[in-house]
Write a structure and sequence with these properties.
This protein is α+β, with helices and mostly antiparallel strands and 151 residues long. 33% of the residues lie in helices and 17% in strands.
């Protein structure tokens, strides 16, 4: 594993762990690397000072470089949620506060012969809308939605 110091086009700096340099490039090319602070996926490696290990210390003991500080689980979760948000926004239509009505409509169309398959939807709903969808047997999945500015 290797820890890279990264920065986004908005100027935020953060660290990310990858299997190797090629792993970073592969994840970056698939849009899987994003800033945990703003969600921007235009990310580059920052200049880092290499950790150089000496074979032995002056007392003959072997020396190892100080380990990099890994991303916290909280940072990793935030990064994953920002990636999830970008994917949902790219692959689904935002129906806003009409989510329950649209989900129910699609559910009913799915049970008819005129069913259309298309993009998914996302939006907001009230507690009573949530109960109504559950009562009707409509499948939906609430996700934690971080603001882009949340760090």
């Amino acid at each position: 594993m290797i820890c890279f110091r990264l920065h986004c086009t908005a100027g935020h700096e953060f660290e990310g762990w990858f299997p190797d340099g090629a792993g970073f490039e592969r994840q970056k090319s698939h849009g899987l690397v994003s800033c945990p602070q703003c969600g921007v996926s235009t990310v580059e490696k920052s200049l880092m000072a290499p950790a150089i290990a000496r074979r032995t210390t002056s007392k003959g003991q072997s020396a190892t470089p100080a380990p990099s500080i890994p991303m916290t689980q909280n940072d990793q979760l935030r990064m994953a949620l920002h990636v999830l948000r970008r994917q949902v926004e790219a692959q689904c239509d935002n129906v806003g506060d009409r989510f329950a009505e649209e989900a129910l409509k699609r559910h009913d169309e799915g049970n008819s012969e005129n069913s259309q398959t298309g993009r998914g939807i996302y939006g907001t709903m009230s507690d009573s809308d949530r109960e109504r969808l559950e009562d009707e047997g409509v499948d939906f999945f609430p996700i934690p939605w971080l603001d882009r500015t949340e760090s």
